[in-house]
Write a sequence for this structure.
């Protein structure tokens, strides 16, 4: 069953604060605590919410965000599946989007510095299955989001 307005409200609040206690989440979306927890578990079970993560900022966080476009040699289902499985195993890749246009995928990568990116490029990105072309852009700063 597709998410409804209440499910979207739950997701919106969790995007702001994934550690919000269930009682506070329920109050923010207008549900009882038990109904909210039921909805949350359903969103997790059906894969709408696949997990929770920690975003680092400040000292100790990686300082360089790289947007990398990947073109594959072929776009068969097998090639796409093998590429996506390999990308999921790389913790430096924060986000991966299947795209339209002249690249097949857009990756958001966070590394400490240019030397770390070079190592990642040599040891991981260039060895991902089916890669024909890699184009990377280095961010200057975040304007919205992080």
């Amino acid at each position: 069953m597709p998410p409804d307005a209440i499910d979207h409200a739950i997701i919106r609040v969790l995007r702001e604060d994934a550690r919000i206690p269930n009682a506070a989440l329920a109050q923010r979306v207008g549900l009882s605590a038990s109904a909210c927890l039921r909805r949350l578990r359903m969103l997790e079970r059906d894969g709408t919410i696949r997990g929770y993560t920690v975003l680092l900022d400040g000292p100790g966080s990686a300082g360089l965000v790289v947007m990398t476009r990947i073109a594959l040699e072929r776009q068969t289902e097998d090639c796409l599946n093998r590429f996506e499985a390999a990308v999921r195993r790389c913790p430096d890749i924060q986000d991966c989007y299947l795209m339209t246009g002249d690249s097949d995928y857009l990756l958001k990568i966070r590394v400490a510095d240019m030397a770390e990116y070079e190592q990642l490029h040599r040891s991981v990105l260039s060895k991902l299955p089916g890669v024909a072309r890699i184009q990377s852009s280095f961010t200057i700063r975040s304007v919205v989001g992080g």
In short: The chain has a mean pLDDT of 89. Strands lie at 64-72, 93-98, 105-111, 131-138. Residues 33-45 form the longest helix (13 residues).
